[in-house]
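Quick one before lunch.
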Amino acid sequence: MPSLRDLYPIPDIDPVWTVPQDFDAAFDWNYDDGRRQMMHLYQKGKDMQWDAISRIDWEEELDPDNPMGLNDQLSGIYYTPIWAKMSAKEQGWARRNFQAWTISQFMQGEQAALICAAKIVQQVPDLDAKFYASTQVMDEARHVEAYKKLLEKFGVAYPMTKPLQTLVDQALRDSRWDMTYLAMQVVIEGLALAAFSNIRDVATNRLAQQVNAYVMQDESRHVAFGRLTLRDYYPQLTQKERDEREEFLVEACYHMRDRFEARETYEILGLPVEECVKAQNDSGYMKMFRTMLFQRIVPIVRDIGLWSDKIQAAYAEMGVLNFAETDYEQLVKTDNVRAEEMDEINKEKRRAYVADVAALGARGTMAAE
Ligand SMILES: [Fe+2]
Ligand SMILES: [Fe+2]
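Model of the fe (ii) ion complex:
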């Protein structure tokens, strides 16, 4: 298996990234029974572990010119002369890089989630939250594994993009434990869920659909964990402390909406970067996508009680305030159904394979022949 580092088209990247830490690791000597809902979530975290090796059908092939089977019209530069001028071969290479960039950010974000969840295990004061967070650590390790396996099939991978790195750095560096939750469980995982669901629903390649559907099944627990913990904690803070959290949230949301551009890919492809970024920002699909990204964050922010007039005004300006009314439970139910559908398809494939092998044993030929 190749090291992804060998697949980065960008040279001179440090092999490690270190973020200095300054926080207290907390032990809980009470060993209370734990909050009912938190322990329920912990039980689910244990019950619903899955293994990327056995649950996903890795035999599925990817088209090197369009690995996830995406429609070109979804690309930010499809309607520009830049795209029209490219040969079919160049377009294929561009598609592969754009899609690899997206999945790379998913994978890099998963490693960030792994590190943040481990920080939460150490820092959060209550044992029930430590229990739950420890299942998340394992979930995130499995997610890194699944996306890495998917990227190996692309043959191209990208390092973590700077805007994401800035937010992850803040999540880790802040010595207040709830800030790690706010940056990771609310903002990054909220955005990630929206981006994963987009790929799950628009990709025509089944491997890409499966990886995203299965990861999402776990992510909704992670967001629920942030929501449960912060909903208990924020009412205990002063208004000034809550204001600080709201300011951070608004800034992080703008940052991710406005800065999350695939600049690196345009550079690597030798395309005019500013022109491509502008076309991307102006494209109707991207505008819709940037709004949809907030579908999962806004209802959670309201639910954890960071809902002053200021934050509502910021979300109104971003055009995402109406997501506060989203039926979040329904979204989570749909996420589960989609993952289970994938299991059904896999089971059928396996049954067909077993029938084939049995027929081969009986008649010396495959059943389909
Ligand atoms: Fe994850
Ligand atoms: Fe997660």
